[in-house]
Design goal:
five-stranded antiparallel β-sheet; FAD-dep_OxRdtase; 3 helices; FAD; D-Amino Acid Oxidase, Chain A, domain 2; oxidoreductase; FAD dependent oxidoreductase domain-containing protein; flavoprotein
Amino acid sequence: MMDGTTFDIRAKVLINAAGPWVDQHNELTGQKPPTITSTQRYSPHRTAANRLPAGARVFRRRWQAVFVIPMGNRTCIGTTDTHMEHPEVDVTADDIAFVLENINKRLTLDKPLSQNDIISTRCGVRPLAIKDSQGSDRDFLQLSRKHVIDTNAESAHISIFGGKLTDCLNVGDEIAEAVSQLGVTLSDPNFQWYGEPPSP
């Protein structure tokens, strides 16, 4: 509490959705799932610019995909794929230069995008989920970006490892199913928690 007082709460199910801190959280709660997260992390950096035509596009550069996603009258461009040793990251000048260079190579614009066209930047990291049997010394570019969900029925504890923003709806559906299997009745299993609200 704001005044420093504490109290205990109990939940029917605990869902660890701590992203790159999922392992640290599991250590605090004494969980030892068979899935581990790699110390090598994927860092998606995006730059937003407002001069691109509408329409989402995906370009492939070696293993690197470049996303161009309309967001109202702006456009989100990304990403980079950078090996990180810790989850505290910032967008770097190299990240911005990489995104601008690659998008300008692939779009024919009257004037190439530059630093002046950037409205905002954002970045984050995600752990890459690997099984104990796979070993943690594999090249991080070869590791799957797919999420893994681990459920400990005995302690009613669910951990989400890895995954990506574009897969969040699938993760949500899988978590809802896992919670139901642990005996928790969802108030409305047909409730749609994402997307545009219905017309009034």
